[in-house]
Amino acid sequence: LAVNALNSAQAVLIPTRPEIADLRSIKLFLTVLERIKQEINPDLETLGVLVTYYNRELGPHKAAIKAMREAGLPLLTVGIEEGDHEIEDQVSEKSHPIDIPGDPRTRT
């Protein structure tokens, strides 16, 4: 995101895929975001990290969620699951709550 956009924003939502490689990017982004809050926009609110393309059957996805939690990232308790993409559903993706292993606020 451009610094100008974050300067004008009231809040920021951080979308990410549940992959270990994305964890590094999120940590870097949060570092930059904290600097912007300190120097430019102290009222900027971090809404949280929105996990996208989550597949509860994949071990690496579960491991990535666990690593994000252990890193103290502000994970949201909802996300966008990876799913079937039918022709008539190409324009919008299906969104609904997901399980985040170990989080009592999510369904089991």
TrEMBL record:
Compositional bias of kind Basic and acidic residues: 91-108
Q: Where is this region: Disordered?
A: 84-108
Cross-referenced InterPro entries: P-loop_NTPase
Q: What is this protein called?
A: AAA domain-containing protein
